[in-house]
Amino acid sequence: MDRIIHLEQIVKKFYIGTENELNALDGIDLDVTRGEFTSIVGESGSGKSTLMNIIGLLERPTSGKYEMLGVDVEKMKDDDLARARSRQVGFVFQTYNLIPRMSAIKNVEVPLLYAGMPQAERTERAEVLLEMVGMKDRMRHQPDELSGGQKQRVAIARAMANDPAVILADEPTGALDSKTSRMIMDLFHQLHEEQGKTLLLITHSQMLAEETGRILTLIDGKIVGERRGNHAH
Amino acid sequence: MLIENVRIAFASMAANKLRTFLTMLGIIIGIAAVITIMTVGNSITRQNEKDMSVFGVNTMNVYMWFREDAQNEEVTVPGDMIPKFTQDMMTKMVNHFRDEIEAVSVTVWLDDGRATLPDGDEEKQYANVSVQGANPGYFTVNKATNPIIEGRAFSKDSLGKDDYDCVVSDRLVKNLFDGDAKKALGKKINIRTNKLDNAYTIVGVYKDALSSMNGMGDPTVSEKDVTTAVMVPFQNAVSLSEDPNASTLQNFDVSAKAGTDVMSFSTDLQSYLQSLLPEDSQYEINVYTNQEMIEETRKTLQQLTLAVTAIGAIALLVGGIGVMNIMTVSITERTREIGTRKALGAPRRAIRGQFITEAVIMSITGGLIGTVLGVLAGFVACHVIKMPMYVSLQSILVSFLFSFGIGVFFGFYPANKASKMDPIDALRYDS
Ligand SMILES: Nc1ncnc2c1ncn2[C@@H]1O[C@H](COP(=O)(O)OP(=O)(O)OP(=O)(O)O)[C@@H](O)[C@H]1O
Ligand SMILES: [Mg+2]
């Protein structure tokens, strides 16, 4: 079994030491293995995004143990985290977060740039990725010239840039209509099935969650339920 | 990475054109001011150096006048009170500085007049002349400005008042002898001055370097009418002069032999001549060298440069603060971008590098615009003061480095702040 993510008693507190002290995450135990497509559901404020930010190495837990690919994250310096993010994590955000004034292809090149790939290779790789998400014909477009669904497809290409160990998608269809959502979900399935990608999807849609292999339910920073989805092998 | 950063910098500058331009204005003004003054200063210095080689570095003017502190209320000075160098003083001086003095030049001016050929048509062929009495030493002292190009100078110092020899300029030869200097030698010309006509024999032709210099001629006077000096023997001129004090010597020129330290010689000369005067003399002797004159212009120029550079520096400082301000604004506006970049794996130094690059690009763009404007302004200024322009490459290099430095210096703080942003806070930031 190929364990990518290992969380043990992860706690994340906010407003530490004040009367508003808040346990956004309250003792999370979680293992994710290679090739899994997991979804996380839960009420607003239950801690889904916080969990994803910790898994994505954007922030450190207040306590608990986190190993990514067998490496203890606590021992890593900030720039080591940045390097691990660029190579092992692909983010897909609800608000796309494409960098303005940069064409689609330049956006896809950004993680490659930070991973130190030379220009010619970057362009080549970015074109392949945009082709994969069906955006090659619009690769010279600026973000504000693209629709929401198109932006999200570019963002997915960008998340795939360095062939990361895990793709983290935080409500990727939250701002899209159902037809476009379907297209994005199909793209995730394609990545999962054809390329064996490990995916972690946060969603408010029970229907979309059912499509994945494993569904985690979060309440008040605790995983209260885990069940198999329709996609389980 | 650098290429990408430069590309992003230009894109974000292009997205906020007006704001970027206003920010660059301080730098543009600062650099333009410094480049302008340096261009003008450089041109004046070069011109001075040129003048120095034309006028000769080894000549000096010696003159005597009342001491500044002398009690002398009368406006007009009676004849016997006019300060003058006596023959005795001159002889002593020449003997004392035998090793330093190359030649002594004494001159006396007569009124302006007109030179014609004895049998010529005055309406067609003439030259406007100023008649100047000179000793042979004159031609040695002025060999740089008025070199003899044909014939000879006056033969000896003792040329008396009845010697009607003259040395004319190439300009006069052009007017009266179709420019043929050889043909002019030995010819007689009529010179009318003080309502007197006198016939002179041409013994030499000198080159009038000054009147051929650009910008010296009055454009309203036609080329043919430009006044040119005719040199006649000193004693002859004195005898023709209406001024009873024509022969008194208030000033004269000296040229130093090659290898003499002109500056220290001029001080020695001054103190020696002063020592020949009685101690309580109300006269004062001054020795003025070309070097001194050039030195003075250089000093004035230096002060001016300093003042303008100070203004430029203030403008640059203000400009730098402007860059810092706009970078802070830009970084706040682009918080989400910074968060995204961090999520995509940007290390701190990449973020810092990106925004420093942006600040540097902004300030060197301002610097380049300022340089162009400065060179243009320098060109206009040089045109106004009628001087050939020499662009100071050094100043361009310096201002480039300066604007680069401003970008780095004032860009560092905001860029560093951006690099230290927490990725989560940055991603959650609502713009
Ligand atoms: N940076 C932060 N500073 C302070 N409190 C935070 C921060 N991030 C999250 N929280 C708090 O932690 C709790 C969990 O937030 P989180 O964003 O993880 O919820 P979520 O499950 O993603 O909600 P949603 O479905 O609305 O996105 C919330 O109460 C939130 O207010
Ligand atoms: Mg959330």
Question: What's the helix and strand layout?
Answer:
The complex is a heterodimer of chains A (233) and B (431).
Chain A: E1 3-14, E2 22-33, E3 37-42, H1 48-55, E4 63-68, E5 71-72, H2 78-88, E6 89-92, H3 104-114, H4 119-132, H5 148-159, E7 166-170, H6 178-195, E8 198-202, H7 206-210, E9 214-219, E10 222-228
Helix pairs in contact in A: 3-4, 3-5, 4-5
Chain B: H1 2-15, H2 17-55, E1 59-66, H3 87-96, E2 101-105, E3 107-116, E4 127-134, H4 137-141, E5 148-151, E6 165-169, H5 170-177, H6 181-184, E7 188-193, E8 196-206, E9 228-233, H7 234-240, E10 251-256, H8 262-276, E11 283-289, H9 290-333, H10 335-343, H11 348-384, H12 393-419, H13 423-428
Parallel strand pairs in B: 4-9, 6-8
Antiparallel strand pairs in B: 1-10, 1-11, 2-10, 3-4, 3-7, 5-8, 7-8
Helix pairs in contact in B: 1-11, 2-9, 2-11, 2-12, 9-11, 9-12, 11-12
Bound molecules: adenosine-5'-triphosphate and magnesium ion.
Residues 48-49, 170 of chain A line the site of magnesium ion.
